[in-house]
Each structure stands twice: as structure tokens, then as C-alpha cells.
Batch of 2 targets.
Target 1
Amino acid sequence: MRGLMQDSPLTIDTIFRHAEQHYGDVPIITNGPKGVTRSTYGEWADRTRRLGGVLDTLGISADGRVGTFGWNSQRHLELYFAAPCTGRVLHTLNIRLFPEQLTYIANHAEDEVVFVDRSVFGLFWPLVDTMTTVRHVVVMEDGGDAELPDDPRISDYETLLAAASPVDFDVRDENLAASMCYTSGTTGNPKGVVYSHRSTVLHTMAALSPNAFGLSVRDVAMPVVPMFHANAWGIAQAAPAAGAALVFPGPMMQPEALANLIVDEGVTFTAGVPTIWQGVLPFLAGKEHQLREIGCGGSAVPKALSEAYREQVGLPILQAWGMTETSPVASSGVLPRRLQDADDETKANVRARAGIPLFGVEARIVDADTLEPQPWDDTATGELQVRGNWCAKEYYNPDAGVELSTADGWMKTGDVAAMSADGSIRIADRTKDLIKSGGEWISSVDLENAIMSHPKVAEAAVVGVPHPKWDERPLACVVLKQGETATEEEILEHLKPLVAKWWLPDAVEFIDEVPKTSVGKFSKKDLRAKFAEYELKA
Ligand code: ADP
């Protein structure tokens, strides 16, 4: 017997139409150097349909790649929908990648047009001749003042939009590509992930669920996580689907500007990587605000950071785990029912975990070579593998040199994790960041968390450095809070009660800043290179 229900394709134009029909008066706000610009979903919908017309006028192929090079803004949201809703494929270029990587991904994706914010035009334009398929560069005025050369490839977003006619959106095949994103390459060359309409709609529903971001018409959502990185964690689709107002920081990414925007615009939900919240904390502490949730992920969320928010801002951070390859949101650190009334310390420990997979994602930990399942006892570790309808099956560049799926159909994450009896995930490390000491593994993440709980420490990153006897030993690179001084002994004394004796770093280096990747994560690759020749004291 077969079910007798309707079966309509899960396509992104359904999200668009829902927002257009029901939330026309809901605000969309974009910040800029001259202050905020206010609009509504109604205006956005009209402009997005006309942007579809612009893509036709420019002669972009039926499934042509539409590149973007810009900050989080209303125009970026127009592109997020106009491209896939006309059958094209949105390709968000990460504005902080190295020039060679940008050239590589634009050519590999075969971008036909790139929409560029004027404030970052100067980063983009020198590369245009290396991008062999790019025929058009459309400049979006975001208050930037870059000089624009006289070149027939360049046109102005608003001029094109004013001249264009609105188009109908009707995508019938849910398995068509909707957008693509190359991983930022914390651990190697950028690898292309291609999302379908179906995977995006399902991910949107998951991101909307209360165990994830729980967005609704009552929310004012501010994605700080860039739209050029891992789809702004799905917020750009989830907010229109829920009718949540949107606040975009635009190019105003300085911590103080972010904190002011949260306060002034009554933001209730926001999300970004830990280094963002680290910076914003002093500007938000003690202020009156409407926040109900701060989502955070992309790298381990230090317990000390989440607790500092609880104490100084009045709400802890919600940790989420995911990857570009998982659309990206795959798990969240919600408090299980039995711990709703637990003491603060217990709750803080739960929040320090990647947490429970969202409904729709399954997770397992296995021996990476034999695929032997590891016990869920919170001690045994293994490679974290996931499966679900918004997890990637393969990369767009098979020459990436990485096999994404196992023979039995699970996605390899490259993360090492333990799982507790109820399947809550604790990320121990990235495979590449684990420190191998005398045949045993040391988790750099655990050490960093322990060091960052020292009151004088602002940031800490731990990397393995070569050791003649033990292969590798941990080196702690510590950034002290402004005005503080500390000694190596002080840091090590602090660690002694917190970690196994053989985990204690062999040395502590005080540095001015931890090098960051293009999306603000600690760049262990750069730290390892910096300390490659490091001589440990015997
Ligand atoms: P990359 O950092 O490789 O450029 P992504 O932004 O897709 O690409 O990052 C995915 C990776 O980020 C995960 O594999 C994991 O190592 C790390 N990560 C994401 N969320 C968390 C988290 N909550 N805790 C620890 N690590 C995380």
C-alpha cells in the first residue's frame, strides 16, 4: 500500500514565496559606514524577482554559476534567492581566501558573473583576469569607496535592477544544484560542496527547529557568521521561512559595531564563531538587550567563554557543530531534559559539547581504518561520521584528494570525537590537530579549554612540535588579556589539576595574537609552520 499524500518538490522558491506572501512588512536591516538601511521582505521580494531578470539580461546560462564576493547584506540575500530560484547556482566566494585560492575556486566553479561589494572591490578586481569564465562584475554600493576602473565588464547593481523586469520562480526538480561553497581550507585546498534545493530546504527546517535556532516571527535574527562561509549557517533561509526580522552587519564587523547593532535593533538571535563572541563580550557586558540565544560553532566553544556570557551578558552560548559539508548545522548543545534543573557547573559542561545530532542527522564514532564502532562511553574516541539528507556525498572536485564517504555510505568528518551514552558528541580534536606523544593522542582542544579558563588568558592554541623521544609534544601558545603578565610556571600550575600529567605542555610561548583562518578560526596550520623548528628544552 502506498501513501496517498501530495508530493511537491522541496525547492528554495517555496521559501521565497512563503516570505513574499506572508511577511511583507517584516524588517530587513543592513548596517553600513553611513548607518543602517531599512527595508522589508516585501521590498526584498520585489527586488529579488527583478534580480532574476538581471541574470537573464546578463545572459547567465540556465544553470550558470553566480558568484558573490561580499558581506552579509540585503543584496546578498537577494542573490541567495534570485540565483537558485531561476535555476542558477549561487557560489559564495570567501572574501578572505588567498588570491590563488580565489582564482582556483572561481575557475573551478566556472563563475560567469561575480557580484562584488564596493568595500571589497579592491581585493577582487586584481584577480579578475585570472578568472577565465567571469564575463561580468556587478558592483554593490555598500558605502565602500574603492575606485572603479572604466571597464566594460563592470556594471552597477542598482542600475541593472532599476532597468529589469520581475520574473517568475518555478523550480521543478528538487535535486538540482542550488548553491555551492568551497571549504575554507583550514586543512588543505578548498573543496567544493554542492547543495541541492532539497538539501537546503531540509536543512532550513532543521535549523528552524527549537533544538537548533528555533526562529519564529517573534525573532530578530542577526547572522554574524558570513554568508560567504557555510551559508551563514542556514539563517539566510531560515529567517525568511519563519518570518523573523533580519539584521545584517554589512562591512561593520568590528566588535563594538556588532554589540551596538545587537542592542539598538533588538536582536534576539545571533550566531558566529567563538573569536567573534570573544571580541564582542566587553562591549555587550552589562548592556540591556533582547537576546534569547547566541549560536556559536565552527570551532570548539571554550567553556570559559560561554560562562563569561552567562555571567556578564545574562545568557550562555548555544554551541552547535557542523561543517561546510553538512550544510552546515548538524548538532547542537541543548540541555537534555534530565539536566534542565542541574547545577551551573553540570550545565556548563553540557554546553561545552557539540551535543545531540539534530533530527535528520545520524552520528557514529568508528575506528577510521577498520570502521569498527567505538563504545558510547564518553571516553573512547573515534572518527566522527555522519549521514543525513543535508550531508554531502562527494566533493565537486574529485581531485581534492579526499574520499568523503565510507564504503557503507557515511560521511567522514575528519573530527575525532567521543560520544556519551545518549549519543551526545564531544569533539576531541581534528584528526590533523591531535598531538601524537609516544604513540598516545593528546587533545589540543581540551588543553586549550583548560588554559583559557585561567583568568589572565585571552586566547590559547596548542600545537604539537617535534620531539626526539616522544615524536611530538604540546606547545601552548598563549595570548594574555590586555595589561596582564604571567609566567610559564603560572600557566602550568593552573593546568596541573585539570589535565593528565603527561598532557602538560612542554613549553608555553606568550604571543600577541593567535593566527586566524579566513573565517576567524585558530589557524593551527600557521602556528605549526611558525614553530616548526621549535626546540623544546630537554
Ligand atoms: P574549515 O574549518 O575546514 O574551513 P568548516 O568551516 O566547514 O571548514 O569547518 C568544519 C570544522 O569545524 C569541523 O570539521 C570541526 O573540526 C570544526 N567545528 C565546527 N563546529 C565545532 C564545534 N562546535 N566544536 C569543535 N569543532 C567544531
Note: Residues 51 and 103 are 25 Å apart (CA to CA).
Target 2
Amino acid sequence: MAFQLPDLPYAYDALEPNIDARTMEIHHGKHHAGYTKKLNAAIEGTDLEGKKIEDILANISQHSTAVRNNGGGFYNHSLFWEIMSPEGGMPSAQMNIHKAIERDFGSFDDFKTAFSNAAATRFGSGWAWLCVDSNDKLFVTSTPNQDNPLMDVADQQGTPILGLDVWEHAYYLNYQNRRPDYIQAFFNVINWHEVTKRYNDANPGASDF
Ligand code: MN
């Protein structure tokens, strides 16, 4: 079956004032829809049809640029919508992700600084990520274009559990060139319940706090 554009799990205006409704509408309805359509076109009639997106991305060096760009775009945005929420904010101290962040970064503020720097210094278009590796250790990284840390071409490979789109299409209508303001606002809408779920699922049973 072809890949399907997932529905947004909230209304276009749900993340205002942090992310405006018009940006969300274009981002989901045009950009993400476009990646989904082009991914399906790129794999139609090939042996990638019917494969899981994670499995395609894990061997992306063997596939075409169209599969890399649009497969990444499909996966990255699907994650992005899920890890945001109008009820976002700080993770509670009881959450495994909060304990893992303190274990691996020292404090939540130190994590926030590292993630914000990764997002701010990614030159041109790309993404900042919080990932977990196979030893259950968290790390922050960034990738260009629509690449992500699941790809075998990534500098640092791991399972992404939080991602921030820093393409200008993600913020320019509201923030123009002020990417740091957009990064700051993103922290108001992070869905830590979803991030902690993704963290727990990455290495089941590994983090027994
Ligand atoms: Mn985008």
C-alpha cells in the first residue's frame, strides 16, 4: 500500500501563538503532502513498495536521491506533528525522558542549550534531533535537508525521538529570519508524553529508573 499523509493530530491553529495556523496549513497540506506523493511516485514499481519507511531509510545509501529526499520528508514531518501538542511544555520529573535527559546532559537546561544550538547552527535547511542510541544513551545532532539519524548516511545514527524542522518554510511567515525565536517557541509546544513514549519504545526495558 502506498504511504498516506497522516492527519494532523490537532487543528491548524492549535499551536498558536507559537506556530501560526497558516504555516501549519501550508506545511502539512502542501509540503508534507508533496513529500508523500513524490515518495510514492519514486518507489512505484520498485522492490521498495510495501516496505516500512524505517527499513527504507536504514539503507538509504542504496536508493535514489528522490527516495532519500522524499522518504526523509515523509518520515520527518510525520514525527514532527506527533511530538508537538497545544498542551506542550516541560516534561514532568516523573517521566523517564526527564530522568534520561538529566543522566545524559546533566540538566534539562543543558539539554535545551545543546538542542537549541544544533537547531540554530544548522546552515541552510535541515533538522535538529534528540536521539537515543542502541546503548540507551541520548544525544543531540542535526542533519541537512530531509536527512535524519535513521539513515545509514547520517553522521551519528540513532532513533530520533524529538525533531525540529528548521527549513524556512517551517517558520518564515511568522518569524521571518528570526530562527532563534522560533526555536525558543518550539519548547512551549513539545509533547513530552509522545517523546517519552518514543524513548521507552526505542530500547524496551533498558531504562529502569
Ligand atoms: Mn518542513
Note: Residues 27, 31, 77, 165, 167, 169-170 surround manganese (II) ion (CB under 6 Å).
